[in-house]
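Table S2 (text version). Query chain:
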Amino acid sequence: MDVRPKDILVMKKKHPCGGNKMMVLRSGMDFKLKCTQCGHEFMVPRSKIEKNIKSIIRETEEP
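Corresponding structure-token output:
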């Protein structure tokens, strides 16, 4: 799955604050995510995140 920094991930499950959109700060074997609602930053293994992604919102790249 192609997930890049600055992508917004819409998750199947909600964060405890009630938000389900996470911004990718770092990707690799682990993802560093930031909740767009409360601003909490956390790291999660790639395998756990990839199965919980509902959709990816990506800003269009301009040349």
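Notes on Table S2: The helical segments are 46-52. Residues 8-57 form one domain.
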